[in-house]
Amino acid sequence: MTTNRQFVLARRPEGKPVDDDFDLVEADVPEAGPREVLVRTRYLSVDPYMRGRMRDEESYAEPWAVGDVLQGGVVGEVVESNHPDFEAGDTVTGNLRWADYAVADGDELVGIETGGVSDSAALGVLGMPGRTAYFGVTDVLDPDPGDTVVVSAAAGAVGSVVGQIAALNGCRVVGIAGSDEKVAHLKDDLGFDAGINYAEADVAEALGDAAPDGVDGYFDNVGGPITDAVFEHLNVRASVAVCGQIALYNEEGVPTGPRKLHTLVEKRARVEGLLVGDYAPRFAEATERLVGWVQSGDIAFRETVVDGLENAPDAFVGLFEGENVGKQVVRVESEFDA
Amino acid sequence: MTTNRQFVLARRPEGKPVDDDFDLVEADVPEAGPREVLVRTRYLSVDPYMRGRMRDEESYAEPWAVGDVLQGGVVGEVVESNHPDFEAGDTVTGNLRWADYAVADGDELVGIETGGVSDSAALGVLGMPGRTAYFGVTDVLDPDPGDTVVVSAAAGAVGSVVGQIAALNGCRVVGIAGSDEKVAHLKDDLGFDAGINYAEADVAEALGDAAPDGVDGYFDNVGGPITDAVFEHLNVRASVAVCGQIALYNEEGVPTGPRKLHTLVEKRARVEGLLVGDYAPRFAEATERLVGWVQSGDIAFRETVVDGLENAPDAFVGLFEGENVGKQVVRVESEFDA
């Protein structure tokens, strides 16, 4: 192992990212310093929030500079460890790089806790997306049994878990997704009560049937017109957890739409932004619950796997085209694997 | 007393209401039936929310039909009572009519509790607007000492009380109002720490000076671009109480503006709609606190009084032109008073 492929941000995307926004460059395999660990990437996570870091704007995650190596959630194998918690051969997860290899402070890595489920699940149902769903439902929406909970991007990594946790809470669950195939997956595989294909249906109208008693909780992954439509159906004292706004991430300038604050007065509704990192002190609780639910079969999950680090940009861009069902991961095989 | 002047909705306003939207008609003075009370109006409250009832749209308050007598908060004198709780000469308050006289179920009236403050205060600082401010600050914003709280329409009936209660909680209080005179009133008479005249200043820019540590709580009475500007300054975990959207009430069609849900994710902020009626079981608590603060001088208040029932539409329309400082009331002298 002498060289390391890694993606850098070649330029800031305008609108939807394209291949030329990313450069695959070769560098030396880094060396682990004191308390550092060298990790070989096995799975890389691509997530919609990364689009925000490609903008030159301050937000909850620091923007990348042009030329920076892109970062992301990784499951990998320890190659060399100068940290007492890890040794070569361990499987770990952490926020590493779109690269074959990366070094990290060992304190920033954790062993994966997947209870025998696939390792890559540590990036999805048992990782950041699963925890986001858990805290979003449990803490922000906090639905009562019998409530109707609607989730957008329902077939995605977060939405699919949101709906299943809400169902475990005794809720009627309605998922909004972008194809008939995804809607069938929600109902047939994930136990959703109803699904709406926003690419075909008028969402506001379809919700009249799918949520005949109105919407008590809405977990928003998309924003834009789909969210506008859901707001028309909010019940008095409804709760809205805002997790993502993927429909807007590629817009240049400030997206506009109907003003909705008056609806909140009419409905005495609550809208709250959700960032999973705020719940770090409770990650162990979430992981334990999620592992239990997956092991018992109460939560099913699917992954969409793209092979090859070189295809990471395609996998990332595919998120904005709805190409993934469940968690989108990139399986990375080092060129030196053989 | 043989006739009763009363305002009916002549037609639904288009945009800002005008005189021809209202008709002053004469009718017989109504008679009190069993358990009913005949009340002569002394003060009539005009409030921005009434604009919503003039639309043909369902909301928290039922829309008026064209031809309906307009309703509103009234302080009046009991002329005749068939209810055991009241007798002629009592001063009462309730939701009555834009009229010289009205009958009401005695169960829907209450004696005024103003602790020696002016009777009309039962429509303002000690009535619905004061209670709205109380629950909005205490329950929805729930600020900590040292927090910065911003309120829009700060010189109005609700906003002026919001700011003073927040100050009593140890907050830095910034008011946004529509004239230099109002801003001076906020700072000189009501103890606000800073004020912004939105008619002259760029609100987003001015907030940089007025709220240098950002905004922890925002009480929104206006909506629209002023609220957009405040959102730019929200701190992490900020709270927003949405009470009114007066900047939008006269718009035809659906008002549009920049989408703000992503800001809520960035800031993990909470936005909640507020309707004072939901707090009815706790009105006594609010009144007791408010009366105490007014008696001790901790809360100052001002009223803008228009004389004559016939001027009620002008007083109402004036709300949308920022003509009032503090609570806008109409003093009604029956033509039969003499």
UniProtKB/TrEMBL annotation, chains A, B:
Q: Which InterPro entries match?
A: ADH-like_C, ADH_N_2, ER, GroES-like_sf, MDR_fam, NAD(P)-bd_dom_sf
Q: What is this protein called?
A: NADP-dependent oxidoreductase
In this chain the Enoyl reductase (ER) domain maps to: 17-330
Oxidoreductase keyword on record: yes
The molecular function terms in GO held by this entry are: oxidoreductase activity, acting on the CH-CH group of donors, NAD or NADP as acceptor
Q: Which CDD domains match?
A: PGDH (cd05288)
PANTHER family associated with the record:
PROSTAGLANDIN REDUCTASE, PROSTAGLANDIN REDUCTASE 1
Q: Name one Pfam family in it.
A: ADH_N_2
Q: Which UniProt keywords apply?
A: Oxidoreductase
Signal peptide coordinates: none
Organism of derivation: Halarchaeum salinum
